[in-house]
Amino acid sequence: MTSPESEIKSKTIALATNAFEAFCDDIAGMFGIDMKCTNTGVSTETPKGLSQKFKKLAAITFIKSEGILNGTFNIIFDQAGLFALAGIIIMLPKQKILEDIKRGSAKDAEAIADTIKECGNLLVGSWDRVFREEMEGHGHFLQSQTFIGNPWDKPDEKIGISETEQFQFVSFQMTIDDYPPFSCGAFFPEQIFIPKPQEPPQSASAGEEKPQEAVIQEVIPETDIKTETPAAVEKPVEEKVPEQTIENQEQPIASEVKTEDVEDEVCEPASGPVSETIKKMIELPPQTKEGLPVLRMCAKDIMQRQVLFGSPDDSVQQALAKMQQAQTSYMLIGSNSTAEGIVSTYDLASAVSIYLKPAFTKWHRPEDDATLQIKVKWVMTKPVKTLKPETSIASVMETMCQTGLRCMPVSAANGKIEGLITVYDILRALLKNDVIISSGDSLQPTA
Question: DSSP code of 136?
Answer without folding.
Answer: T
